[in-house]
Amino acid sequence: MEEVIKIEGKHALEGTVRISGSKNATVALIPAAILANGPVTICGVPEISDVQSLSVLLRDLGVLVDIRSSDTIVIDPTSMENRPLVQDAVNKLRASYYFMGALLGKYGHVEIKMPGGCYLGPRPIDLHLKGFEALGAEIRYDHGSYILDAPQLTGTKIFLDIASVGATINIMMAAVHAKGRTTIENAAKEPEIIDVATLLNKMGANIRGAGTNVITIDGVDQLAGCFHEIIPDRIEAATYIVLAAAAAKEVRIDNIIPHHLEALLSKLKEIGTDLEIGVDNVVIRASRDLKAADIKTLPYPGFATDIQQPLTALLTQAQGQSIVTETIYTERFKHCQELNKMGANINVMIPSSFINGPTPLSGAEVYATDLRCGACLVIAGLIADGVTTIHNIYHIERGYEHIDEKLTALGAKIWRETVE
Ligand code: EPU
């Protein structure tokens, strides 16, 4: 028995949708909160399964997790214990690796199973480990688990070969209690990194430069509890913007930071979508005569890899050949074969996909192979003639809060069904 999402396409969407707190910030903020000596209140937490998986890990560490309302949690690490993280929940999401930096920073010792997450091709964590080693940690890999030990972490200069989001955040967390100054050069600049640095600074850390490519962390002895509100999810926002460009009569998307979405918004203008950008919202109206475009994914502020998959669904409706080139995860093209089942004409030659449009799409049985592939298939289902059935929806539930309810409120015909 499996729960699937079904979508009957071709219903023009109309209304307003509110974007939730950022998933990729949340999954780092929750582990970061354990560095405090008192309760940390975080609001704007999305109701997604990744948060449930992280809550399981927190509770296994003896951390009190109090869900105050649909979007506010209080994380109280006062009586936590540094136990090995080897249970199944570690495998459910990649971000469980943030417990490496947080526990190493707090206790100088971590034991954690190899983290899981979406398969997007190889996703090494060598830069995280090199960073921890540079700070003084010894690392062993034993029976599928990493064991990290550092009686004393000492600040140092760390140059990242690749501007990795995860490595930047993980090293920042490990370094908050290190002796002296840590400098991360070629740091990633994603908005989620600024959000984590903001939380840590509110707790009492001394981090400067987050959002630029040089981050400086001066070690401190103690971190206290605090209150923090998560930034809006720029990838969820992007998904709804693209979805509206594909299927809206008129849709307003609230609670966005347009600055975080500049690469997408300027690309959508090039494609010919009708957008009106406000201070914290965007209105999208039905757009005709879309033009093909070329996209190359890059680290922020370049075009996000997470958005190329949803955008590909829209590009199937554009006139001409679009080329999407992946430079972050070169195998992130599993959505293309699913779109082709619906009538798209896409050739994949890694690291690029060639999308020949416009092609009418029709409902089919398709499989979400990862989170953003799932988002892409939802958009395709909204455009398609007939009913689309999406399998493996647990991928979608990892990162999109109440996607079916949000879309139903916009007039989409989307429902869940349990099938054999
Ligand atoms: N990389 C290495 N070694 C490392 C770390 C990364 O070679 O030690 C490489 C990766 O293989 C990749 C590149 O560096 O080619 C960038 O990876 P990065 O570390 O920045 O990615 P991540 O931290 O694992 C986060 C998001 C991803 C998003 C990427 C890129 C979270 C939890 N995940 O992953 O989000 O695609 O940054 O922006 O923040 C998603 O939301 O669907 C998603 C997969």
TrEMBL record:
Binding site for phosphoenolpyruvate: 23-24
One CC-aspect GO term: cytoplasm
One GO-annotated biological process of the protein: cell wall organization
Alphabetical list of Gene3D superfamilies matching this protein: Enolpyruvate transferase domain
InterPro entries: Enolpyruvate_Tfrase_dom, Enolpyruvate_Tfrase_sf, MurA_subfamily, RNA3'P_cycl/enolpyr_Trfase_a/b, UDP_GlcNAc_COvinyl_MurA
Active site: 118 (proton donor)
Cross-referenced NCBIfam families: murA, PRK09369.1, PRK12830.1
Record-annotated Enolpyruvate transferase domain positions: 8-407
This protein's encoding gene: murA
Protein name stated in the entry: UDP-N-acetylglucosamine 1-carboxyvinyltransferase
Pathway: Cell wall biogenesis; peptidoglycan biosynthesis
Broad class of the protein's primary localization: cytoplasm
UniProt GO MF annotations: UDP-N-acetylglucosamine 1-carboxyvinyltransferase activity
Family designation: Belongs to the EPSP synthase family. MurA subfamily.
Residues with 2-(S-cysteinyl)pyruvic acid O-phosphothioketal modification: 118
Compartment(s): Cytoplasm
Catalysed conversion reaction: phosphoenolpyruvate + UDP-N-acetyl-alpha-D-glucosamine = UDP-N-acetyl-3-O-(1-carboxyvinyl)-alpha-D-glucosamine + phosphate
EC number: 2.5.1.7
Function, as annotated: Cell wall formation. Adds enolpyruvyl to UDP-N-acetylglucosamine.
Keywords: Cell cycle, Cell division, Cell shape, Cell wall biogenesis/degradation, Cytoplasm, Peptidoglycan synthesis, Pyruvate, Transferase
Organism, scientific name: [Clostridium] innocuum 2959
Keyword Cell cycle: yes
PANTHER family in the cross-refs: UDP-N-ACETYLGLUCOSAMINE 1-CARBOXYVINYLTRANSFERASE, UDP-N-ACETYLGLUCOSAMINE 1-CARBOXYVINYLTRANSFERASE 2
Annotated positions binding UDP-N-acetyl-alpha-D-glucosamine: 94, 123-127, 306, 328
